[in-house]
Amino acid sequence: MSQEIIQQLRNDAKEWILEAGELIKESMNQPFAVDTKKDRKDLVTEVDRRSEQFFIDKISEKYPDHKVLGEEGMGEEVTSLDGTVWIIDPIDGTLNFVHQQRFFAISIGIYIDGVGEVGFIYDVMADDLYEGVRHQGAYKNGTQLDPIDPQKTLEESMIGLNNTWVIPNRRLDEKKMQELSRNVKGTRSYGSASLEFAYIADGTLDAYITMRLSPWDIAAGMIIVSEVGGVTTRVDGSEIGMLSGNTVVCANQAIHQELLTYIIEK
Ligand code: 2AM
Ligand code: CA
Questions:
Q1: Is this prediction's pTM over 0.85?
Q2: Can you spell out the DSSP letters for 151-167?
Q3: For 47, 150, 152, 234, which has the most beta carbons within 10 A of its beta carbon?
Q4: Residues 138 and 11 grouped into a single domain
Q5: Ligand 1 residue neighbourhood (C-beta within 6 Å)
Q6: 121 and 7, same structural domain?
Q7: Could you tell me the residue range of the domain that residue 218 belongs to?
């Protein structure tokens, strides 16, 4: 892919994500409708939908042959990663958006023929913009991020982990997860997957484990974390797919390997 095209995509994605952030902030001052999706904790607001529509309008106008895979499904159905696909979560952390008015992000991953080229995560209320470009590094507010520490051990780690996976649950051996919780330095749950990836990139977190993510939750984060030397796979160690749901474990190489031994699927 030519550097000129990548640069153009970076410029456009950056401009649009900041603009969408402004739209979201403005809409927070007015009442908005909140609906539930799969269950009572799975929320969508009209702001999510408006934010997604904003990206679809911008992308289809400038790049009519690009595809948009968005959480709210307002673009065309995407069944292949051929060509250029923008994988977008218009608000990642909707529960936080509704209940806390912060700790949510916009996430954009741009994939060309299945390869993640450019990722942006915008923490709207903190006004922190994370960017990753394949083979060109990761940045936070324009400053290049250092590689994550390859020597860090699990015992020294802060891990992004929701308590869902530590209490009895259908997916994992909770006893092993409790052992893990005891063995690490601390666990945190931020409620926005893309932000948990961004926090690994900037060293706030050392790892992230979850059993249920969609492509738009991770498309940008995987690119950004990979640029600082992090590894992301499913919890069985296999490769993440961008057209299906995934389990996720992300960390430096050594911690990642060790984490796999704790995560026993039922
Ligand atoms: P969302 O806010 O965009 O829905 C919360 O733990 C994280 O998981 C958020 O990034 C949230 O994204 C995502 N999430 C919540 N419910 C989910 C589901 N049923 N499938 C996939 N991801 C989900
Ligand atoms: Ca979302």
A1: yes
A2: T--GGG-EEEE-GGGTS
A3: 47
A4: yes
A5: 38, 42, 71, 89, 92-94, 162, 191-193, 212-214, 217
A6: yes
A7: 154-260
